[in-house]
Amino acid sequence: MKKKVILWIMQTQLYRWLLLKIVPFIRFKTYYTTLRGNKYHEAYKHLRPGDVVLGVDRSKLTTFLIPGELSHAGFCVGRMDGKNPGFEIAEMTHHGFTKSMFFDFCKEADRVVIMRCPNVDEDYIERMIARCLSFDKAKYDLMFAFGIEDLYCSEMVYDSDEERRFGASTEDLVGLDQEYISPMGLYHADNLFAAWDTDWQGS
What we know:
- The chain is an alpha+beta fold.
- The chain has a single domain, classed as endopeptidase domain like (from Nostoc punctiforme) (endopeptidase fold (from Nostoc punctiforme), Alpha-Beta Complex), CATH 3.90.1720.10.
- Helix content is about 30%, strand content about 15%.
- It has helices at about 1-10, 15-20, 35-45, 60-65, 100-105, 120-135, 155-160, 185, and strands at about 50-55, 70-75, 90-95, 95-100, 110-115, 140, 150, 195.
- The longest helix is centred in the middle third of the chain and has 12 residues, at about 120-135.
- The radius of gyration is 16 Å and the shape is globular.
- It starts with a helix and ends in a 6-residue tail after the last strand.
- About 35% of the residues are buried.
């Protein structure tokens, strides 16, 4: 019964309006996030195409709605000092498929973690990037269900890895009673490791 009520709410126009127009803008502080420029520059030294980037703004409402220490995910498709499609980070936001710079990702975060898969070669990285870019017209997935027409942030990353080399967990951490890939599912993926974390001491 509880699941049926939740699913019914998720199909209403009010739910859609709240999730796209209201919830993304609610923060419980009016001041900036805490990630400073020195941490951004240090993290950027470690960023590579094919990396998964995870972040959290600890003052955002969405952070309280998503279980775990990290609440957002993106995928590095290039660097401006190398081969790139005109931007660096692909992410799914309330705007849909969003073309961002790494700076854009960091400025809205208190913590950013760069995750890397050790068992991918350059060919597979290029294939992941190409697949990620193919989601250009995708809209934000309000139902949090698997499928590539609509995507949420960590689902976009998960589906870019078509061969599932990341070994990411689809454990239902948000109580939807269905498979769900969360940012923490990526963080705890069997074949991803933290290449850099802005919370590391001295970073």
